[in-house]
Amino acid sequence: MTAFEIMQKHYRQRDLAAREWKKKGGKVVGYICDSVPEEIILAAGFFPLRISGDPNSGTDVADKFVIPEYEGFVRSMLNMLLTGRYDFLDFLVIPHARDAVHQIYAILSDVKSSDPTLKLPVLYFFDNLHTTFHLSQVYNREQVIAFKQKLEEWSGSKISNASLSKAIIIGNENKMLLKKMAALRATDPPCISGVEALQIIGSSMFMLKEDHNKLLQEFLNEDHQLSGSKGVRLFVEGSPLDNLQLYEIVESCNATIIAEDNCWGNRYSDVPIDTSLDPFEAIVDRYHRKSPCPRIHPLSRRVEYCVKSAVEVKTQGVIFNNLDNDSQAWDIPDEVEALEEKGISTLYLKKQPYLISDIEKVRVRIKRFICCVKPSKY
Predict the structure, then answer these.
(1) Which residue, 108, 140, 161, sits at the end of a domain?
(2) How far apart are CA 80 and CA 51, in angstroms?
(3) pLDDT digits (tens, 9 = 90+) for 18-37
(4) Residues 332, 336, 338, CA angle at the centre, nearest 5°?
(5) What stretches in the chain show pLDDT beneath 70?
(6) Which of 145, 260, 372, 377 is 20 to 30 A from 111 in CA distance terms?
(7) What is the per-residue DSSP string for 109-129?
(8) Any idea what the CATH number is for the domain that residue 357 is in?
(9) Do residues 213 and 174 lie in contact, with contact meaning Cβ atoms separated by under 8 Å?
């Protein structure tokens, strides 16, 4: 298998590497959302595994515990946890992110206490504030200290500065290699499709970073033309995308997704950790100042980041994909206005289901949009 094929395999079989680690006697720490500092988990000697949903698995069990208004990908994650898809996890870190994610902690805590026979991991709530102010950084630093202490309790040993520094170096290398891959998407014509890129980025969250770095380096040393890409250059903004369905639809319409503002895409590798600082303080600093997600205040940071990211890759159009019941869409009107002022066409797909059932209807809308995209001024 080629390096890319191995990464594809791990994107499809997201528990593969973690289960192999577990068989060898290691312990696995699952975490939800990229606001959890995975470097500290790695430094503690655990396997950090980002939890994702599965649009094809249904949410029947989870729906008994949550209101229908919760986002489909959150209900999917809860369903997988309740039905044993993540029964190999030793621990699960749930951050203070969107309300529905926060609710997962309360639901699992209640279920765990009412049914001790149900195989669920040890839970930890990672609190954090969502502004960039100094007082927020002070508060968040205390939360990272508490998280580090909890990991030390779980592992039975102290986390040294040396282990933190090593984890930072490994993580920074992964971010650097992913940014090199991202540059190949932005070439004219693009060397890598959006579908291919999303699999490469996503697989880094389901493997040990050292193993992923080797595959990425091997991939970058190869010829960079995968499936070949052409057509209109598009940028995707909006709700988290932990699967390929939207990208596959878009790229079947004579278009290539050359970048995105998404925690499952380019935004994941945007900001490295400053190695000139004390390793712990550097981690705190990075997670405080990382690229802004929709829950970050002030709103202006989101708008500036979206426009800058779209302009840098010379996109011709931006597709806003807002999942049904995703309340974190308040930045979209300002982003649309700012992009159109730059002469960049936009398409707003509102209230999309987590699993798109009427694929042809979405494809028709995208094709119409592509036909109306303004010529690039770059």
Answers:
(1) 161
(2) 10
(3) 999 999 999 999 999 999 99
(4) 115
(5) 223-229, 327, 374-378
(6) 145
(7) HHHHHH-TTS--PEEEEE---
(8) 3.40.50.11900
(9) yes
